[in-house]
Amino acid sequence: MSKETGRTLKGGEPKQLPIYPHKNKLVQAVRHNPFLIVTGETGSGKTTQLPQYLYQAGYCKDGKVGVTQPRRVAAITVAQRVAQEMKCTLGREVGYQVRFDDCTSQDTVVKYMTDGCLLREVLADPSLSQYSVVILDEVHERSLNTDILLGLLKNVFCNSAGATKGRSFPLKVVVMSATLETDKLSAFFNDCPVFEIPGRVFPVTCTFGSAVGPKDVESSFYVKEVVKVALDVHTSEQAGDILVFLTGQSEIEHACDLLFDKAENIDYRYDVLDRTVEGILILPLYGSMPTDQQRQIFQPPPPGIRKCVVATNIAATSLTINGIKYIVDSGFVKQLNHNSRVGMDVLEVVPISKSEAQQRAGRAGRTSAGKCFRIYTKEFWEKCMPEYTVPEIQRTSLTAVILTLKCLGVHDVIRFPYLDCPEERFILEALKQLYQFDAIDRRGKVTKLGELMVEFPLHPGLTRALLKAASLGCEDLLLPVAAMLSVENIFFRPGHPDKQKEAAKKHRALAATTGSMNDFATLLSVFNSCKSSDRPSAWCKENWIHWRALKSAFSVETQLREILLRLQQRRDFPVETFDGNKSELFRRCLCAGYFTNVARRSVGKVFCTMDGHGSMVHIHPSSSLFEQEAEVNWVIFHDVLVTSKMFIRTACPIRYEWVKDLLPKLHEVDVYELSSVARQEVTEDEMVKWESREAAKRQQEGSAEDA
Ligand code: ADP
Ligand code: MG
Predict the structure, then answer these.
(1) Residues 6 or more apart in contact with residue 418 via CB below 8 angstroms
(2) Predicted TM-score of the model (pTM)
(3) Best label site of 147, 284, 391, 569, fewest CB within 10 Å?
(4) How far is the CA of 107 from the centre of ligand 1 (A)?
């Protein structure tokens, strides 16, 4: 029996949710259709209830009910909630699986997971034989992995024998979405039926601000403004909870700090309009938050206290918080975008789309009329915000998913059934990168190395570096680094300026112990120092390191090591030798994966990338190279952050000789090869079109360089 048994449920009562009256009809609809689309307002009960209805209807007798989420927090919190509703221990009948965190068991029949996890399962078991129903949730978010799953599931069914191949019973597919784009989805799945859950929404009045205009992308500015508006709402509006939309963990932590500080000075006898309001409870909510803290988000606040949740976009549709009456919208979102200036994916803060802004505002009108305070001007709305959010598949690197598709036997990655096609050049760029990593050969076939690479849930470059290290017998250098780069930022940055200085000093000291100005080495050193410490959590506190993040890094490292050990059993696992010192060995392994991210000193403190884009980049102040870069001429880096300038983060100095032989690979791949890699058959016509397009591109680039 579970610990949860007997506890009363807090939050939405399942029988009062809009989905409840439709229970039987929904189960019938699933029974009679191989594909079904279910739509309904956020909070109607789709995610938490439908899997339970299917469970009760016996769908878990033959297999599991699997539900995908684009966000890991959503998968975890929803599974917790459903376990509680079904009165079972999390990880037994109801479980979740997200990258590097598997909370399922033999008994698990209702499984929440990220879309990335299901994609990996398809690799191991293409017919998904363990599942009786697969529910793709939050499809309107149009995450890359969900889009790929849509295509794969369509393929399975359209391929006449596919639906039953390798299975003893037919698979059911349910696609769930907020009320957008249902016609398009239905058409995609051979005009399958759409089940609409009617919901009631209350009006939300929106007001624009006067502060943030088209040029204010600086976080310091919009964070302050959001805090100011939230405090205004707190003091001048009637009781009701506030939901603030911000961009990411650090902005949210910063805003919460400021709110705490300012809220302390409120005199509730005089300063607030609604005298029933006697305090404020400030709660952050972002992707990598500890789960015990997340629980509080859903609890009603104590009497007289106003809850103020400061969240990322996760609160827009993935999680429903009851009791929200006011929205404060920053107008920005942190998004992974393919940046053509640097030729790679970068995390950028960009204006949200108008449809996203409406979605955010809607969160205030679930149970009664609400208000939405936009901190940006009407001009910002008109000039800077696009109508709709571009699907991820059309704006991020496709390298990892193309490798997955190829490993699944989908060779023609251009004519794959995409709900929205990515631009061909993005596909070609992915193929080019895979070719550069030796993951595919000149004919587009997956190589042995590619087969190894696909096993790791990491960025292909990082995987390549790790495999290089493993082949040289020094995986102990790279495994911790790969783990540290897969968890949230481990360096704690306090909100208070004095403390910030203190933390920065400690962090610099940590970097100095490696004696190498190498940020990757710092990560390795922090990992090892903490691991060998008697009191790791105290060690972290002393050094301003997030203990929780480091704990997950330990677990991730173990899991990566398990994958590697399994692969090393293969007889054809590559073996290489190297004689040189350890620091060089370490950096050479990094070069194997990061040679696409090489930059050379240009003038002063500015570096120039070598990938053919020739972008000017700056060393990020958090890097150990920031102050000493004068001695360094060549660097590789893990990622790029775009704010006022382009900053490279997690960098290390290298020697030109180490990448000299690799760099030509960045330019040599030619169009004939790539297009034949992309399709199996290329017509003459297509070839000619290609050629002229490429020639035009080269010419353009040439003239840009001349200028
Ligand atoms: P939908 O998927 O249609 O947006 P959900 O099934 O996510 O709706 O949510 C239904 C209801 O369950 C909402 O009222 C929400 O507040 C509540 N709920 C969901 N998760 C939790 C949780 N972890 N704790 C408390 N209430 C929750
Ligand atoms: Mg949902």
Answers:
(1) 147, 151, 393
(2) 0.86
(3) 569
(4) 24
Q: Separation of 119 CA from ligand 1 center, angstroms?
A: 25
Whether 94 contacts 80, CB under 8 Å: no
Helix (H/G/I), strand (E/B), else coil: 419? coil
- CB of 365 shorter than 6 A to ligand 1: no
Give the distance (Å) from ligand 2 centre to CA of residue 42.
6
Instruction: Give residue 143 CA to ligand 1 midpoint distance, Å.
Output: 21
Cβ atoms of 527 and 557 closer than 8 Å: yes
What the block records as the tokens of 179 is 């009320």
pLDDT tens readout for residues 249-259: 888 988 999 99
For ligand 1, say whether the CB of 320 is within 6 Å of any of its atoms. Answer: yes
Exposure of 504 in the CB half-sphere (CA atoms within 13 A) = 12
Mapping DSSP to helix (H, G, I), strand (E, B) and coil, where does residue 307 land? strand
Q: At which residue do the structure tokens 């039987």 appear?
A: 24
| Contacting residues for 524 by C-beta, under 8 A, at least 6 apart | 477, 480, 481, 484, 514, 586
ipTM over 0.95: yes
**Cβ(14) to ligand 1 under 6 A?**
no
The CA distance from 205 to 101, in Å, is: 41
Mutate to test the pocket of ligand 1, among 82, 317, 320 (most ligand atoms within 8 A of CB): 320
Nearest-CA residue for ligand 1 atom 25 is 11
Task: Tell me 389's DSSP state.
Answer: P
With CA atoms as reference, report the closest residue to 271 among 238, 224, 234: 234
CB 480 within 8 A of CB 486: no
Q: Is 624 in the pocket of ligand 1 (CB under 6 A)?
A: no
Closest-CA residue, ligand 1 atom 22, reads 81
